Amino acid sequence: MRKFIMILMTALLVLTLGACGNSEGEKQTNDTTTSPSEEATVTITHELGETEVSKNPEKVVVFDFGILDTLDKLGIEVAGVAQSGVIPSYLDKYTSDDYANIGSLKEPDFDKISEIDPDVIFISERQSEVYDELSKIAPTIFLGVDTTRYMESFKENMEVIGEIFDKEDEMNNEIAAIEEKIQSVEEKAKAMDEKALVILSNDDKVSAYGPNSRFGIIHDVFGVQPVDEDIEASTHGMNISFEYIVEKDPELLYVVDRSAVVDGESSAKQVVENKLVQKTKAYKNDRIVYLDPEIWYLSGGGLVSVEKMVSEIESSIK
After folding, report:
1. Is the pLDDT of residue 233 over 80?
2. In sequence order, what are the beta bridge partners of 225?
3. Whole-angstrom Cα distance, residue 278 to residue 92?
4. pLDDT at 112 exceeding the cut of 60
5. Which domain CATH number covers 219?
């Protein structure tokens, strides 16, 4: 009998300890399952500072059209767009009421942006002066393109987007496709004897852009020879006269019509193709090329806009 009681007590003790062990195990499993996981973030170093931002942010505000066309290409939704102004026609869907109007490129609507409570704000050069104010609302990242090193800067910006939105592989494929096309264009351009001049037409005035300038990608990346190596590299270009164009006598003349996108009226053809310019090889040989100002003036620096730039220059090379 005593032996039986000892066996029974031992069995009960084992069962009790087992139950306690199972209870503790269940408690640990529940803690692991229900404890909130830390939100993944990434710190981005950019021209205006360092910004910590959540991975895969949901409420995205965009001021730069190149970044907007990149997000659109990748299927990433945005919450707010600078609608108070001209939006490139290839991004026309962003003029709808489905997207909050966050002001213009030069005058952000801070109240509307605060109302959105964004997870991230993407800006470029036109908004750099209000970076600090925007940063008080949400993590703000500067992704302007450095035109003195266009492709390197472009790729760095694209890699930032890829990292934030977990699109690295897709982004690498897109960049590789653009680089392959650029290589083809560069080979054709270097085999071309024509030298080119790039000008911006603004009402009745013109300014020239050479290597390392706003439109320097035509020379620096695509390989088109400049007719003048000494053009002053400036954001607004070097002021020139029509006599200058005749003196340099380019075989190829690229024209960006600012008035067409800012004022909604194109006057470049009437302004540029005057009696003086008609003396140039470019005019005589029908080699005046009017570039899409929506891409070259309003946008640029995005997956879609850079690909369009490549295509336009490729079409101009004979």
Report:
1. yes
2. 195
3. 36
4. yes
5. 3.40.50.1980
